[in-house]
Design a protein that fits this description.
Largest sheet: 7 strands, parallel
Strand order of the largest sheet: 3-2-1-4-5-6-7
Radius of gyration: 17 Å
Strand content: 15-25%
Distance between the termini: 37 Å
CATH topology: Rossmann fold
Order of helices and strands: EHEHEHEHEHEHHHE
Structural class: alpha/beta
CATH architecture: 3-Layer(aba) Sandwich
Bound molecules: nicotinamide-adenine-dinucleotide
Number of domains: 1
Length: about 250
């Protein structure tokens, strides 16, 4: 049990990659708060964790709203007596298309869900981490933040901001024993955002085009990302801060 007794929040874990992270952490002994804006999806993930013998409960919160994120952190502290790890996974993208065609509303939503959420989780979780004599943020960024391609300009920019900000926060909060790391997953066709990233349904042609750029010859899975999150959440990573773990099969272009 690699995270036995740890109190962990996973945002946006009602499906996709977040669901995989929440399940993997619960398998290894964590008490997990499954957060999402979609209660039905989140409760389903909780049921599946509990049925498998794990510890989890749901908390509805919108990661772009300060009062919601504050309540989310308070819920973890109330339910588990402390907060050890906050996984900022909730994310959103505009559909893959030319940069000039993305609306201002879509731009704002992209930066609110992907980036403002990091600001809000820092503001609200750092005091809880300080009270706990330390803690760990795991921010789900993306390969898009380091090796951007055309069509996702504003999404790519939001993930680049997550990466740079995470490194800044790692430097700033190291003296508080607070670690801040990122995970950069490559494309996962089995998630809610897949068609948005691909610019349409993930058909054979689109799959083949993506796959050709991943030397290890397959897409990432939620379990791949969950395993990386498990390492960063565990005490094995006690001296690891300010890094991005690339879970991308060596994607080169
Ligand atoms: N799928 C990929 O190919 C891929 C690749 C790299 C990075 N990522 C990143 O991984 C993360 C998870 O993405 P996914 O592909 O699993 O997406 P997804 O759409 O399958 O899951 C995202 C979850 O977040 C929830 N959510 C959305 N807005 C929210 C908000 N404001 N507050 C709380 N919850 C909210 C959704 O309801 C959903 O359950 C995102 O940060 C995404 O940018 C995904």
């Amino acid at each position: 049990m690699r995270v036995q007794g740890k109190s962990i929040i996973v945002t946006g874990s009602g499906g996709g990659i977040g669901e995989g992270i929440a399940k993997r952490l619960a398998q290894e002994g964590a008490s997990v708060i499954v957060n999402d804006i979609n209660p039905a999806a989140g409760e389903k993930v909780v049921d599946s964790i509990v049925q498998a013998g794990g510890k989890a409960s749901f908390f509805a919160a919108d990661v772009t709203k300060s009062a919601d994120v504050n309540a989310l952190v308070e819920a973890a502290v109330q339910r588990h007596g402390k907060l050890d790890v906050m996984v900022n996974n909730a994310g959103w993208t505009h559909r893959n298309r030319p940069a000039l065609e993305v609306s201002e509303e879509e731009f704002d939503k992209c930066f609110a869900v992907n980036m403002k959420s990091i600001y809000l989780s820092t503001i609200h979780a750092v005091p809880a981490f300080r009270a706990n004599k330390g803690g760990s943020f795991i921010n789900i960024a993306s390969t898009a933040g380091v090796r951007p391609r055309p069509g996702l300009a504003w999404y790519n920019g939001s993930k680049g901001a997550v990466i740079t900000t995470s490194k800044s926060l790692a430097a700033e909060f190291g003296p508080d024993n607070i670690r801040v790391n990122c995970i950069n997953p490559v494309f996962n066709p089995d998630t809610g955002l897949a068609a948005e990233f691909a610019g349409g349904p993930v058909d054979d042609a689109r799959r083949a085009k993506f796959l050709a750029t991943i030397p290890l010859g397959r897409f990432s899975t939620a379990l791949d990302v969950g395993n990386a999150a498990l390492y960063l959440a565990s005490d094995e990573a006690a001296f690891i801060s300010g890094v991005c773990i690339e879970v991308d099969g060596a994607r080169c272009v």
